[in-house]
């Protein structure tokens, strides 16, 4: 697991390393510059490099990089875009050292001369939009087509939100220090950052921030009991599908089984019976007729719930009165069983504050931004700009585990921790992809994972499955079926690693 930090959090970590731990700022900076220098040597054409610097410590990193290049015999020009009057203490020292070593300093840059540009204009200290000469410079760099290495973060990207502050430099590669910044993890910042390397410069101890799973977290996958039987790996009830909507029931239930659940039962509209039995013979079926009375419907749901260890409700369910009765029965008779609430069940929940109040930490809600905006009664742009704030506010009404799906999916666990998922790709914006996620969450819960782990792990795994599908079929053409295949392949790989 890695921690993603905002600019403010990173500055506090810098300061505590310098002041409380007693590591001089210039030591950290030299390590930062050496990490950039290593990356330049490995990945960039160094026939002639231009290092563009601001007046702050990001600029000071850049000046140190120019010195290292120069001393190693690589042709380099240093261009100061900031003002001497606003130099930080470290920048004064770096600037003087560069002059002492006679690093070439230019007052104009003729971009055609350079094979690589180092962007050290602004780092986590960016406090306002780029304007004037900074904006013009960023635009020229972007127009030049020359490969760019960004120091810590591409200049112009907000380190906390990933938003472009007026204009931003587009990097080929970003070498970021100590912790990955949230701003280069979110869109559009992550696109501006290009390929990202996180380098240890001697700053440790982050405890606050947003968590993100990485390859080491494969160990979260519950071990299989060699003596287990289909009952021990979880009985999952999917209440899904409606007339003319059998696909969502298929994708979610298939994903639950592929994720390792022992048994899957689909509770759906009678009209889906034949197609689902043919498509997915491993699943058991319970059906209802739309003409049934609420009591008859409730009886069928309660019987199926008695059987299940985990219930998932919503994919393709519609928002009919029947669907509302199904959801109400689930939440009323859940007996503290874990419940995944997805898709149409979320739209129904948005209208029913009384049902929201019945949710607790064992309920996992999986809204995309449209569904979340209805649940939290805010706009999609509110959610994009202040995701954590609105997820926190929603928790006051509905104390659930929350998966807010987007190109970068946020997860808020019931203890208030946040996760941001970094796997997945735009090919996953395809019908049925969310249904697959719903099934993965349910399948993992059925194998005994608690919701605080199942939610972030399922999202991470689902993204990896999507990445596998994109490499097999291409992001443009991949479909939910390919994500199911990717899921099988990823789980096989994980089991072989564990
Ligand atoms: N010792 C340290 O504190 C370390 C700092 N490091 C580097 O230092 C960076 C942070 O340095 P700073 O805090 O000095 O901040 P920055 O160098 O990121 O930028 C701050 C400076 O830019 C000005 N500024 C901000 N937005 C502007 C805008 N839109 N237009 C014009 N001027 C603007 C500010 O007034 C300030 O002078 C990190 O990103 C990292 O690169 C690393 O070397 C690691 C160690
Ligand atoms: N650009 C993207 N990058 C990564 N993941 C994406 C992207 N677009 C969509 N996804 C993922 O695909 C899934 C889509 O879910 P959803 O919108 O519920 O689709 P559906 O209802 O069609 O199944 C979510 O898990 C979402 O995070
Ligand atoms: K930068």
Automatic annotation (TrEMBL):
Cofactor note: Binds 1 potassium ion per subunit.
UniProt keyword list: ATP-binding, Isomerase, Lyase, Metal-binding, Multifunctional enzyme, NAD, NADP, Nucleotide-binding, Potassium
Start and end residues of each YjeF N-terminal domain: 10-209
Alphabetized InterPro entries for the sequence: CARKD (IPR000631), Nnr (IPR030677), Ribokinase-like (IPR029056), YjeF_N_dom (IPR004443), YjeF_N_dom_sf (IPR036652)
One Pfam family from the record: Carb_kinase
Cofactor(s) the record lists: Mg(2+); K(+)
GO biological process, one term: metabolite repair
Signal peptide: none
Function: Bifunctional enzyme that catalyzes the epimerization of the S- and R-forms of NAD(P)HX and the dehydration of the S-form of NAD(P)HX at the expense of ADP, which is converted to AMP. This allows the repair of both epimers of NAD(P)HX, a damaged form of NAD(P)H that is a result of enzymatic or heat-dependent hydration.
Positions contributing to AMP binding: 405-409, 434
Protein name: Bifunctional NAD(P)H-hydrate repair enzyme
EC number(s) stated in the UniProt entry for this protein: 4.2.1.136, 5.1.99.6
Reaction(s) the record says it catalyses: (6R)-NADHX = (6S)-NADHX; (6S)-NADHX + ADP = AMP + phosphate + NADH + H(+); (6R)-NADPHX = (6S)-NADPHX; (6S)-NADPHX + ADP = AMP + phosphate + NADPH + H(+)
PROSITE patterns cross-referenced by the UniProt entry: YJEF_C_3, YJEF_N
Annotated positions binding (6S)-NADPHX: 57-61, 123-129, 134, 152, 248, 316, 368, 435
Residue ranges annotated for the YjeF C-terminal domain, each copy included: 213-494
Annotated binding of K(+), by residue: 58, 119, 155
Protein origin, superkingdom: Bacteria
Cited HAMAP family: NADHX_dehydratase, NADHX_epimerase
Family: Belongs to the NnrE/AIBP family.
């Amino acid at each position: 697991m890695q921690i993603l930090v905002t600019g403010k959090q990173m500055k506090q970590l810098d300061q505590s390393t310098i002041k409380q731990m007693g590591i001089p700022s210039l030591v950290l900076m030299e390590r930062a510059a050496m990490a950039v220098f290593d990356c330049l040597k490995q990945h960039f054409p160094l026939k002639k490099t231009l290092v563009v610097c601001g007046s702050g410590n990001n600029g000071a990193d850049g000046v140190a990089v120019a010195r290292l290049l120069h001393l190693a015999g690589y042709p380099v020009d240093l261009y100061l875009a900031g003002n001497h009057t606003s130099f930080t203490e470290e920048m004064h020292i770096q600037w003087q050292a560069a002059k002492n070593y006679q690093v070439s300093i230019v007052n104009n840059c003729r971009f055609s001369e350079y094979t690589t540009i180092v962007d050290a204009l602004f780092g986590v200290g960016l406090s306002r939009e780029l304007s004037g000469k900074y904006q013009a410079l960023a635009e020229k760099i972007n127009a030049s087509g020359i490969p760019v290495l960004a120091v810590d973060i591409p200049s112009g990207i907000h380190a906390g939100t990933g938003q472009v502050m007026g204009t931003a430099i587009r990097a080929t590669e970003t070498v970021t220090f100590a912790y990955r910044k949230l701003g280069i993890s979110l869109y559009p910042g992550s696109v501006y950052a290009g390929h990202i390397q996180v380098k240890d410069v001697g700053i440790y101890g982050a405890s606050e921030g947003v968590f993100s799973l990485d390859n080491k977290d494969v160990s979260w996958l519950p071990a299989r009991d060699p003596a287990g039987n289909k009952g021990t790996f979880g009985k999952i009830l999917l209440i899904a599908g409606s007339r003319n909507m059998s696909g969502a029931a298929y994708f979610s239930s298939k994903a639950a089984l592929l994720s390792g659940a022992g048994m899957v039962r689909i509770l759906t509209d009678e009209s889906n019976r034949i197609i689902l039995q043919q498509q997915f013979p491993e699943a058991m079926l319970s059906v209802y007729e739309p003409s049934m009375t609420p009591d008859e419907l409730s009886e069928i749901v309660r019987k199926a719930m008695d059987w299940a260890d985990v219930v998932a409700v919503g994919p393709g369910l519609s928002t009919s009165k029947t669907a509302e009765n199904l959801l109400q029965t689930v939440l009323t008779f859940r007996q503290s069983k874990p419940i995944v609430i997805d898709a149409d069940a979320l739209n129904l929940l948005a209208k029913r504050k009384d049902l929201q109040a019945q949710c607790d930490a064992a309920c996992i809600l999986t809204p995309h931004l449209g569904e979340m905006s209805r649940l939290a009664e805010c706009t999609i742009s509110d959610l994009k700009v202040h995701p954590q704030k609105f997820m926190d506010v929603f928790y006051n009404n509905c104390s659930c585990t929350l998966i807010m799906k987007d190109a970068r999916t946020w997860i808020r666990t019931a203890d208030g921790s946040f996760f941001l998922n970094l796997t997945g790709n735009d090919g996953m914006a395809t019908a049925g992809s969310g249904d697959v996620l719903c099934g993965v969450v349910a399948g993992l819960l059925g194998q005994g994972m608690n919701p605080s782990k199942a939610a972030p792990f399922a999202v991470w795994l689902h993204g990896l499955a999507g990445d596998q599908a994109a490499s097999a079929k291409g992001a443009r053409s991949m479909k939910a079926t390919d994500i199911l295949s990717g899921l099988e392949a990823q789980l096989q790989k994980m089991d072989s690693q564990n």
